[in-house]
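Thought: the user asked what SpoU rRNA methylase family protein looks like in 3D. I have the sequence; next I should run the structure tool and report back without guessing.
Action: structure_tool
Action Input:
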Amino acid sequence: MRGYFAIGIEGVSKVMNLGNLIRTAHGFGAAFVFTVDADKRLGRVPPSDTSRTPDHTPYYAWKSIEDMQLPGGCKLVGIELTDDAVDLPSFGHPLKAAYVLGPERGSLSPEMLAQCDHVIRIPTGFCINVATAGAIVMYDRVRTMGRFAERPLVGGAPRAELVEHVHGGPITRTGKKRRTLDG
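Observation:
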C-alpha cells in the first residue's frame, strides 16, 4: 500500500476503547498511534491491546492540540458527525494522513476541528463506538489505497485475479508528453 496513516483519539477516557483502537491500528499497519488530552490513567498499555502495539508501533501521548507534531505533509482528518463532513464512501484518502476521533459520549473539540484538513463521517444514523468507527475508517483506507482485485458487480468472490504489477523503465515528463529515458 502506498503512503502511510496514523490514528488517534482526542480526550479518550475509556482504556478498553483505546486498547481496541490501537490493536486494530497495529493490525492494519498504522505508522503510529496517538492520544491528545487523554485521561491520565492511559499512561500504560490497555489490557484490550493484546498485540502490545507500543512495542511495535510508535505511540504519542500529546497533552494538547498545540503539542501535536505530525510529519511534514501529513493531513489531519477528523472523524465526526457534522453537517459539513464528507461521507466516508465518497472520501479520497490523503496519501499521508492522521485520523483523529472524538471521545466517547462527546465530539472533537472546536479547536481540533479547526486544525483538521478534512472532516469525514461514517454514514450511520447515530454515533457508534470509537474503536469500531476507527476500524471502519482504517478498513476503508486499506480497501481504497491498497491493491485488490476489482469487486464483482454481483455477489460473490472476484471473477478475475489481481494482475501483478509490471515495472517498466524510468519515465520522464515533459509537458503533457511522456517518454522513457531509453527512447
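Thought: the tool returned a structure. Summarizing for the user.
Final Answer: Structure for SpoU rRNA methylase family protein predicted. The longest helix spans residues 130-145. Residues 4-145 form a domain with the Alpha/beta knot fold (CATH 3.40.1280.10).
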